[in-house]
Amino acid sequence: YVGSSDGNLHAVDAKTGEPRGGGPFPTGSPVLSSPAVHAGVIYVGAFGLIYALRAEDLSEVGRFTVDGPVDTALAVLNDKVYAVTSKGQVYAFNVDPANPQTGASPVADSENTQTGTSPVWETSVGGQVFSSPAVAAVGGQNYVFISCGDSNLYALNADTGDEAWRVPQIPVFGPLASSPAVVPSEGILYIGVGDGSVMAITISTHQPQEGWPLTVGSRVDSSPVVRDGSLYVGSADGLIAIGGDGD
Fold it and tell me: Which of the pair, 192 or 176, is modelled with greater confidence?
């Protein structure tokens, strides 16, 4: 499932590359948001709306209203879908995995479509947001982590929207744009920085781990990826692999 600047969400067969799912779904604006898939439903952001679509045929079963464009990826945790607008508003909406035909918890109208559903909570961070939210359960707490254009890394309570903590004024050249990468089992969060480094933050203490940040070269706007004990980082001048011990 992929959004396009032509204003459509497309479904492509992963084996053949052929279009599938009843044709593209028109959103009315360029789709810069990466979709999230949950219980047979696709959630994708556009300008002022989040659409809920059946994965099998891209038919609309719901929509949620937000104030501004949703240009980054959506996230789903514990039956909630999370979205951030470029203006810095953060939203959480209920979804219903027990009913994949509707994919949303409020009562549907006669056409089986959810419209204008109120969020579970909404809040705002201190600047524009160019990164995707990362949601994770760490140490018994559900978090939404957001890198913000005001150079702060925000940790919000995913159940209430309240700010749990923040790492203030991370040194950058321009907005903090790297999406956080969370390793819940280790209680660590990785984030790229505009000065050409990568930070590893211990979530329980909100402090950088010993030996971090590491300088990798040019600015890092992309999200780090953790796999098989290694950290992979894309910077402006190349791809860097960092061993699990920071070497």
Answer: 192
